[in-house]
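[job 4471] stage=fold_predict status=RUNNING
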Amino acid sequence: MLPVLVVIAAYLLGSIPFGYLIVRLTSGADVRQTGSGGTGATNVSRRAGKLAGILTLVLDALKGAFAVLLARMMLGNADLNAKWWIAAAAIVAIAGHIFPVWLGFRGGKGVATGAGVFFMIAPFALLCAGVVFVIVVLITRYVSLGSITSAALIPFFLWLQKLLIQPAADIRAPLIAAVAGALLIIFAHRANIARLISGTESKFS
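[job 4471] inference complete, writing structure tokens
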């Protein structure tokens, strides 16, 4: 019963709509009516300024990290069964941000929350993906493309870490979480992907 409660708590943590709340409190507006319609840092920046966007980024990352930390504290990290439940908590924290119950299951893209999650379960992979993100955004000026690319590469970097650095490590649970998280983030960017293909996606300025 406890593992199920922990996973539910992780979803509820992930679904806290910090970007929506920040914009609502500062301007009274609904950030979902701006730009891409998401509640994440990039869209908050468009509506309420870069400071609000940075605050959203930090809070969204922290809730992802805390969801995993809570799961570890409650379940421990000693045996394989606990690792699978922690991986489940990581996945649903990202899902909670993308599909928040408080906003009719219409939230953000999951990138910052995913960063917080993977900081806890795959920091090396996150670091590598972060470098890719920066390079892609600097070259193309598309935050969405950087987000999609880096999310998609986290499972690869996790596998690379096992291959080159920790060959004895059991990465099955975090790898499943990485694949599921990447798929969720890519799905949340489906409208961005369509705009990238059509050439109508907004560039970061």
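[job 4471] summary: DSSP finds ten helices and no strands in the chain.
[job 4471] exit 0
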